[in-house]
Write a structure and sequence with these properties.
Helix 1 crosses helix 2 and helix 2 packs across helix 3. The chain is α/β, with parallel strands linked by helices. It folds into two domains: 153 residues, HAD superfamily/HAD-like (Rossmann fold, 3-Layer(aba) Sandwich); 56 residues, DNA polymerase, domain 1 (Orthogonal Bundle), CATH 1.10.150.450.
Length: 229
């Protein structure tokens, strides 16, 4: 089931589709983030010679105070973000595999397609290769391109729009986290929330900045196949 709080613009009005990566282009039920979270704790534990319990506490503290653990590690401790990102994204992706329905829907969807992720380009490429969808995307705008400032800070949204020449009123953003769609809405983009029952996807689901809520992305995108040709 999918629902909309406002009618979607005609597909001819949407010429750029901006997609989040994790838990958006594959199901949140794949549950990859616990692997990342564990690797984050291990990285901190090894870097600062502390117990995993102490590392998890610091991880949480930095997340609360700086928006992401990485931002705290960079700001407070001068950690090289590349070392951190390479380590935490070295995870097992066997739980996801080729998604032919999504690939077909993306291939037939009119307009440019971009990835906008708080993760690294290397991680995004690995995930896209597993899903078999890399060919459909023009570019990846990752956390490095954003100056290591994460969503939902509005700065990276503005950088993305300028870098790729995106007109917000002719763009749609697809995400699994309601708060990450708030800046997109404020800038004038159509917003699409991919539904999940995880805590991060529930709060704000019915907020006015969410235009569409969908529980299965591929068939929802497929309805726009070939429009505007």
């Amino acid at each position: 089931m999918s629902e909309s709080t406002s009618p979607i613009r005609a597909s001819t009005d949407i010429d750029v589709w901006v997609f989040d990566l994790d838990n958006t282009l594959y199901s949140a039920e794949a549950d990859l983030f616990p692997q990342v979270r564990r690797r984050m704790g291990e990285f901190i534990s090894q870097t600062f010679s502390m117990t995993l319990e102490q590392a998890r506490a610091l991880q949480r503290k930095y997340f609360i105070e700086h928006g992401t653990t990485l931002r705290g590690l960079m700001t407070v401790d001068g950690i090289d973000p590349t070392d951190y990102l390479d380590y935490v994204h070295d995870i097992d992706l066997d739980v996801i595999g080729p998604d032919q329905a999504l690939s077909k829907a993306l291939g037939e969807l009119p307009g440019r397609k971009l990835i906008f992720t708080n993760a690294s380009t290397a991680h995004a490429e690995r995930v896209m290769d597993r899903l078999g969808i890399a060919e459909h995307f023009e570019a990846i705008f990752d956390v490095e391109a954003a100056g290591y400032i994460p969503k939902p800070k509005i700065g990276p949204y503005n950088v993305l729009l300028e870098r790729f020449g995106v007109t917000p009123s002719h763009a749609a953003m697809v995400e699994d986290m309601p708060q990450n769609l708030e800046p997109a809405h404020a800038l004038g983009m159509t917003t699409v929330l991919v539904e999940t029952e995880h805590d991060w996807g529930v709060d704000g689901r019915s907020a006015p900045h969410i235009h569409h809520v969908v529980d299965d992305l591929a068939p929802w995108l497929a309805q726009f196949s070939g429009r505007g040709d």
